[in-house]
Amino acid sequence: MSNEQKRTNAPQELRMGPGGRRGPGGPMGMQNIEKAKDKKRTLKRLFLYFGGEKKIVGVLLAAVTVMVICSVYAPKLQSEAIDFITKHKFDNVGKILVIMLIVYGIYTVCSLIQSVLSAHLSQHIVKRMREDLFDKIVHLPIKYLDTHPHGDVMSRMTNDVENISNTVSQSLSSLVSGILTIAGTVIMMFYLCWQLALLSCITVVLTVIVTKTLSKNMRRFFLKRQELLGELNSATEENITGYKTVVAYNRQDRVIEEFNQISDDMTKTGIIAEIIGGSMGPVMNVVNNIGFVIIAAFGGFFAIEEIVSVGMISAFIVYARQFGRPINEIAQLYAQIQTALAGAERVFDIMDEQTESCLEENCSDIMPEGKGVISFEHVDFSYVPEKQVLYDFTLNVRAGHKVALVGATGSGKTTVVNLLMRFYDTDSGRILIDGVDIRDISLEELRRNIAIVLQDTVLFSDTIKNNLKYADINASDEQIEQAAKIGCCDRMISHMEKGYETMLSESGQNLSQGQRQLLSISRAVLANPKILILDEATSSVDTRTEKNIQDAMVNLMKDRTSLIIAHRLSTIRDADFIVVLDQGKIVETGNHEELIRQQGRYYELYMTQFSGKQI
Description:
This protein is of the alpha/beta class.
C-alpha cells in the first residue's frame, strides 16, 4: 500500500495487530520454513506452558475479542453517520460521532492491553521453557553432549526458544484477531447487504490466488538468500576464529576473494528477492482497487435501486479491506508458526532425553569405606557400535598407589577415566571401588570423591577464589590459600592487583595456559578427593613449573589412589605402576625400570622422546 493510500484509509480502518509485518526472511514472511514432524504432540506440549498463565491468556483473548468487535462495529457507525449527513439529520450525527469516539477509545485501550499482555505471556512462557531446558541440559549424560554439536544445543536454547517467544508475542493475538475479524466482517457484510457481500468475495478469491502464486515464486529466492547468508556467516566465523593461521600463511587476499564471491552472490540473489517481494504490495493494491471498483460500481447501482444507502457503500469499502487483510496476515504468520513449532519440537527432543539420574535407579547414596582400591574387570567399551575402544580391560589399582596410563593417541587412556567417572557406562564387565560396583554408587557421591584435572582447563568468568571454591563451596580462605600453595599458584595470585578477587575473563583468557593449569590443579587439591585423576595435568607448563608441581603432588597423592594419563613420559618415571595401552588393550605393565628392561612398547615410546639421552 502506498503512503498516500495509507493516509487516505487511516480514518476509516482500525488497524488490528501487527498487520503487514515483514517476517525474518523478507516480505510476506518468506523464510526457510522448518516443519515439526509431530505437530499435534508439539502443540499439546506447548499449550501446557500456557496452562500456567490462564489468567493472562483469558484477559488477552477478551481484549482481542473486544478489539475485533470495535473494528467490525466502527464501519457501521461510519455508515450511519454518512447517511444522517446525506439526510441533513445533523443532530443524530453528533451522537454517532460520540459513540464512534468511545468505540475508538475502547479499541485503543484494548490494543494497549493486548500488547502488554502478549509481552508478559511470551516472556513468562519462554522463561519457564528456558529454565526447564537448561535444567535438563546440565543433567544430561556426557555422552549426549559428546555426540551432539554444542552449537546445535546452544541454538535450541537461544534461536529456537526465541522463535517461540516471538511467535507467542506477535502471532497468537494476530491469529485469533484475524480469524475473529474474518468471521465478524462476513457476518456484518451479509447482514447489511448479501448482494455486495457476495461480490466482495471476488476480491478474496483474487487475493488468495495472487498470494499463492507470488509466494511460490518468492520462496525460491528467499531460500537461496538464506543459504548464502549461512555460508557468509560460516566463512566469517571460520576466518575470524582462525585469524592467526590466515595471517601466518599470508592468506588474507585469498580469504577476501572468497568472502567477496559469496557476498556478491548474496547481493544478486537479494536484489531479485527484494524486487519480487516488493511487487507483492503493488499487486495487492491492484487487487484491492479492483474490489473497490466492484463495490463502488455495483454499490452505486444498488443505491439507485434503493437497495443500499451511500453510507452502506462506504462501510463495505472498509469491510472489503478489513476482510482481505487478515487473510494476508495469516498467510504471513504461517511460516513463523511452522518455524516456531519446529523449534519447540527440537527443544522438547532434548527435554525427552534421559538424564543421568535415570542411571541411578538402584544406587546407594554412600561411597564405600576404604582408601580407594580400583578394579577394572574384563571391561569392553565402544563409543560407537562396531568400533570398539577397550578390549577385555582388566586392571587392579591398589589404594594409595600412583598408576600411569601411557600409549599412543587413541589407545584408550582417556576412555578409562571416562568410564571410572561414569561419563559413560561399560558395554560389558564392571568397575569397582573398594569392592563396590560404581553403578551401585550415586553419581554425586562418586564424583565428590574423585577429583580430575583435565588437559583442556576449564575456568569460569568469576573471581579466582570462586573458581577454586568450585571444588568445595564451603572451603575457608585458609584452605583456599593452602590449596594454592600446593598447586604452586599462590605466588602468581599474590602478584595480581586484586589477588584472589581477581576476575577471570571467559575461560580464563586473561591468564596464560600454564597459569590456568596451575589453578585447575589447585582446585583439585581443594576437593580433597579419595581418588585423583590427572589427564595431561602438566602438559602446558614449563619444565621448571612442572618440576615444582611434581614435588607438590607428592603430598597431595599421599594416601590417595592416583591415575595419571601422560604423553610426556618424564612426568611418570616415579609412578608405582605403569600401564601401557595399545589399540584398547593392555600390552605391558610394570614400573619404569622394569618396562625399560623389557624393551617393548614402553621402551619404544620412551626412546622416541628421549633418543640420545641417558636412560
